[in-house]
Every structure is written in C-alpha cells, then in structure tokens.
Amino acid sequence: MYDLTSPKVIRALCNEYGFKFKKSYGQNFLTDSDVLYKIAEIAGEEGVLEIGPGFGTLTAFLAQRSKKVLAIELDESLKPIIDTTLAGFNNIDIVYKDIMKTDIRALLNEYFNGMSVSVAANLPYYVTTPIVLKLLEERLPFKKVIVMVQKEVGDRMVAKPGTKDYGALTIAVDYYSKAEIIEKVPASSFIPAPKVDSCVVSMEIRTEPYINADEKMFFSVVKAAFAQRRKTLSNGLANSGLFGTKENIQKLIEELGYDGNVRGETLSIIEFSNIARLLNERGYLR
Ligand code: SAM
Questions:
Q1: How do 198-205 and 142-150 pair as beta strands?
Q2: How confident is the model over 34-57, as pLDDT tens digits?
Q3: Which atom in ligand 1 lies closest to the alpha carbon of residue 131?
C-alpha cells in the first residue's frame, strides 16, 4: 500500500506519472495522518461520498473505516495514479465529473442503495462555498457533511451573531445542520502548501425543521439583511423592494420588540425566523 501522507511518495508519483499540481483545481493534498484518521472516523461506518480524491489519500483512510466509498473527481488526468494507489481496495468507486454539475441524488441511488451516507472532503478552495451550499440546499439524505475548508470560511460557517464573520453563509449552515469546527489544520499539512490555514467543519444534518417560518420568506429576509450589512435591517429590507416601505418595516420590527434601527448582523436565526413569520402574516412576498 502507498503511504500517501509521505511527501517523498507524493513526489515520486508526480515524477513517475508526469503529474503537475493544478492550482486552478485547488489541488493541495493533505498529509497529516491524524487529521485524515479523524475525518474517516467521524464519517462513519456505512457509505461515504468523497469530493475530490486527488491521489486517493483521504479515500484510502475512508475505505478502511466505511463499507463503501464513492469519490467524484474533476481531473481525469489523476486516473492512472488513483488506479495505482487505490488498487488494493474493493469498496471504492471513482466517478470523473464536476461535482457542481453532478446530479448527486441520482448517484446516491445508483451507488449506495439505501445505505446511510455521509460526505467527507478536503474541498478545493476555489469552489468551497458553492459546494457546501449545493450539498445542503439540495436536501440530500446525508447524515453528516465533514469538510476541510479555508480557515476563514470555517469561521464564517460557525460564527456567532454580531461578529464580523456572521452572515448569510452562517445562517444557511445553521438552518440545515449543527456545525462545529473539529480541527484546525495549518497550511504546512498540505502539499503543495496553500497560502492560508484550514480547518475541518463537521455538519450534522438536521432531520427536523429548525425554525418555524416559510423557507422562501426566511431566506429572502436573510439575503436582504446581509446584501448591505452596514445598513440597518429596515433599510436592507426596504432596498430589496420585497417588503414594502422602510417606515412599515420599521414599525413591524418595533412590534417584535426591536429598536427600529437594529442591524441584521446582530440577529440570531430564530430572530430572523420571527421576522419572516410576521412578514408572511402581513402578506409580503406572495
Ligand atoms: N482528497 C485529496 C486530499 O485530501 O489530499 C485532494 C484534495 S484537493 C484540496 C481537492 C481535489 O478536488 C483535487 O483532487 C481536485 O482535482 C478536485 N476538484 C477540484 N474541483 C472539483 C470539482 N468541481 N468537482 C470534483 N472535484 C474537484
């Protein structure tokens, strides 16, 4: 078996196959075996969908802990390497596709046949947020989604109201999952080393609705509130053109006990939900 956490082994494979890391595909391969082990352990014992296997480093750790691994890789030039490094496993399938253009639900049906499935991925940084949102918003039947992301993105995913990192991404992550940062990972743990540090975020997908408001209304309010985060909530909502005049919105916010000049960035997901519910009752955004 190949020790893909060894820089020497990675360099040898690069030489043997004439492989050059593609920055544009976010190819920074993880070499810290403790972190790899931890991700594989949390991902569980049934099915795992991996995004971006690279040379197969995380894939091999996952395959040792899980019944079945399906990995989606964009870069087809990795195929001869993956075919070599993962040759000893019989519970791994690799599909060469762009995850953003993939019908994930159809793949889950095809490969996992009713198994409980989690996602594990060291995500390519150029497309981290769109991938995370796709995984959550499509309401795919995942148990957990465990992703390595740039530290700044991880901070935004789990931020608290009133902090600079808190925003629409935090609220989307909180809406669909219970998220926590489980590991901080320095840039030196990757080959080639990226310019930024990373962290592993574990999202346990919520099976019950977390808030009591119409989803479309809720996300319209959140989007409007953070589109102009320096403005007051009433200004943000009024400028979206979806919720009536600033004066009406201010009154409505005051009815809920807030100062009419409150900023959206200070409100929790539950508070956004209360505002969305009242806007719904008053007939906005039909
Ligand atoms: N899993 C490996 C590891 O941990 O060392 C590699 C992770 S590397 C950060 C990201 C991987 O995602 C690369 O192999 C890259 O080619 C692949 N990738 C980039 N964009 C992708 C996309 N849109 N769909 C699927 N894979 C993609």
A1: antiparallel
A2: 999 999 999 988 999 999 999 999
A3: 23
